[in-house]
């Protein structure tokens, strides 16, 4: 078989949105309820099969806490792809994702493939039952600062960011867009497969 094509992928996003959990699901098909915050960054690899080719993804899972922000360029430099993650139950995290995307568009490889990923889809609490009561998420909407312990607290949370809002932004900015749950695995393999498909491998 041909030698796998090596691809550098970086994960970016606010603390506790679930970057490490997405990678853990993708690489080991596991989930941890109380995953500890990443310090600096973590490195993992996983292969993706695509028609005739195999891609080996070298995945840099960065730390979302602001004190690690200055390290990020080391990890997105030369990256062919970026997964910018927000938490669909936390409005501030989409703003943070947008600022990461601006930074990537200014500073990263101009051909970088970027996927905007809304994680924690299992907490959405939305379904097709139009009779279900509207959820009052006003308390959550006031959160502006996030500390890791707070953000990891998922009890009682529900969707704050509509799919349509995020997907309209992603389309405008030329990004892939997916919603995922690291907890159930929904959308996780698809995220990395969609990235692989969009990469120019010639
Ligand atoms: P930093 O490393 O600090 O930047 O955080 P992170 O983005 O890597 O988040 P992490 O994967 O550590 O997840 C934070 C918390 O959210 C953990 O308690 C996870 O168990 C939880 N979590 C992650 N993904 C999901 C998900 O899809 N659904 C639910 N319900 N919880 C999740
Ligand atoms: Mg992490």
TrEMBL record:
An example molecular function term from Gene Ontology annotations: GTP binding
Bias (Low complexity) occurs at 130-143
Q: Where is the composition biased (Acidic residues)?
A: 144-153
Q: Which domain of life is it from?
A: Eukaryota
Q: Which UniProt keywords apply?
A: Nucleotide-binding
User: Where does the signal sequence lie?
Assistant: none
The keyword Nucleotide-binding belongs to this UniProt entry's keyword annotation = yes
Q: Does Nucleotide-binding count among this protein's keywords?
A: yes
Q: Where is this region: Disordered?
A: 128-156
The protein in question is named Vacuolar protein sorting-associated protein 21
From which source organism is this entry?
Coemansia aciculifera
Portion held of the full protein: 27 to 228 of 276
